[in-house]
Specification:
By secondary structure, the chain is of the alpha/beta class. The chain contains twelve helices and twelve strands. Strands 1, 2, 3, 4, 5, 6 and 7 form a seven-stranded parallel β-sheet that branches. A five-stranded parallel β-sheet has the order 9-8-10-11-12, sandwiched between helices. β10, α9 and β11 form a beta-alpha-beta unit. α7 (about 220-230) packs across α11 (about 315-330). The termini are far apart. Mean pLDDT is about 90; it is low at about 30-35.
Length: about 375
């Protein structure tokens, strides 16, 4: 398995090298004065794959940037475009432009294509301020994981204080402070929580459970689904991972329909991080179950004031059913304004870092 992962890493490195080199040769630097004098934000690594949580992060990031960085022009790039467009970006980017990277669970070896893209972006654009929106970090504890971490360390430490890593869970934050200590590390909630959606009804119980490699071995998915179906008349089964591409034309529709599904549920049972986050956005009680990693446990601190959000380290069908019945009887949800409480300060933090970066670059000229 490790050998296959390493061979895949080598293959992608070779392919990406030639894609990047070919596009570098084609670039002719435009020396004409640009008509748009605005500083730019290059928002990169945007998803076109079927993870609804990552699609929500994209929408939320654009909302955040448009709300708090009105003085910038925002230019969008998808993940798969990275190696093709980087030579062009490298030619046109100015010292006061910012690079923003897609947040999510894509930092590390779980999603190697994302890590390769981020590594290349930071390596090539390290003279500019590069900001990773809130992420979770996961490098596998094997030879392949150590090999990838070593490559990333070289790229990220080269950028040093020009690379801002925003972490959304406490475990990733502690890890990043230790491993990527030359970079700026800050902890903030998942940016998707800036989104808003009204509560609709309590029509059904919604089960949003993994059925992939990240499913935990501490519970039996089939037993939980069977137990819930036995006790409740209407049960909807859903997963935030869809087996189809989702481009910018469908993104808003897909995220809105998912939030509508959560808003009409009486209670949600999930081991998906964004199953929990969508429940909070839609004001729906939620039972979050421990996943294979610590992502859910690590972000639970953001919701400890919301009594309708429950975290179960060792779930069983009996305590799940008890909680569902209690929540259906109370039908209330504490509202938290994450924008007011966290994201305004995030914007202030980024502006402060940007001003410090601008002052430092001006001194070097």
């Amino acid at each position: 398995m490790q050998l296959r992962s390493l061979l895949s890493e080598f293959k992608h490195d070779i392919v990406n090298y030639f894609v990047y080199a070919a596009n570098t040769r084609q670039i002719k630097k435009n020396n004409d004065e640009e008509t748009n004098s605005k500083n730019k934000i290059f928002y990169m690594m945007q998803p076109t794959y079927g993870n609804i949580g990552d699609q929500a992060i994209q929408i939320a990031t654009k909302k955040f940037l448009l709300l708090y960085f009105k003085e910038f022009e925002i230019i969008d790039y998808n993940l798969e475009e990275t190696f093709r467009v980087l030579p062009s970006i490298k030619k046109q980017i100015k010292k006061n432009d910012i690079v923003v990277l897609q947040g999510g669970g894509n930092f590390g070896t779980l999603y190697s294509s994302c890590e390769r893209a981020r590594r290349k972006i930071v390596k090539e654009l390290h003279n500019n301020l590069v900001i990773s929106m809130p992420v979770s970090i996961n490098y596998s504890n094997d030879f392949y994981g150590k090999y990838c971490l070593n490559k990333s360390l070289k790229a990220y430490n080269t950028a040093a204080k020009n690379f801002v890593i925003l972490l959304r869970d406490v475990y990733s934050f502690e890890y990043s402070k230790k491993v990527f200590s030359k970079c700026i590390n800050q902890m903030f909630p998942d940016i998707a929580l800036i989104l808003e959606y009204p509560k609709r009804s309590n029509e059904y119980i919604l089960c949003c459970l993994r059925n992939d490699s990240e499913v935990s071995n501490i519970y039996n998915r089939k037993d939980i689904l069977l137990g819930i179906k036995t006790c409740f008349d209407k049960v909807v089964i859903y997963d935030t991972q869809q087996d189809r591409s989702i481009g910018k034309d469908l993104r808003s529709i897909e995220v809105a329909s998912t939030l509508e599904l959560f808003a009409n549920a009486g209670c949600v049972i999930t081991d998906r991080l964004h199953g929990l986050i969508f429940s909070v956005i839609a004001h729906t009680p939620c039972i979050a179950i421990k996943s294979k990693d610590n992502k859910i446990k690590g972000i639970y601190k953001w919701f400890d004031s919301i009594k309708q959000i429950h975290y179960l380290e060792e779930p069983n069908i009996n305590n799940i059913i008890i909680i569902i019945k209690e929540e259906l009887e109370t039908c209330c949800f504490k509202d938290v304004d994450f924008n007011e409480q966290y994201f305004k300060y995030l914007a202030e933090t980024i502006h402060r870092i940007y001003n410090e970066y601008s002052m430092n670059t001006s001194k070097k000229i």
